[in-house]
Amino acid sequence: MTAPDVTTDKVQRVLEQELARYGQRTPKSAALYERAEASMPFGVASSFQAGDPYPLYMDSGNGSHLTDVDGNTYVDYHNGFGAMAVGHAHPKVRAAIERAA
Question: N or C: where does the chain have the smaller number of CB atoms within 10 Å of the terminal CB?
């Protein structure tokens, strides 16, 4: 078995391509980040959310899926806090909140 032909130059090229793709897919998150970092460290409420080149800003969640402000949909593999147990916007949880409001 031989080692894969991976070089630092190849890794750098792939990184640059992926960062460009990220920027093309997430211009609204980039704009929100610029605005947010003027008032919050790293532009987010938690250091866990910080990341290079900027974090994604979510618009909505449903079940195990999240949609960012640019309309891209993701599977939420983090499932932090309450979402871990019931997903995002579970109908029974929403109904209970609406009754209590």
Answer: N
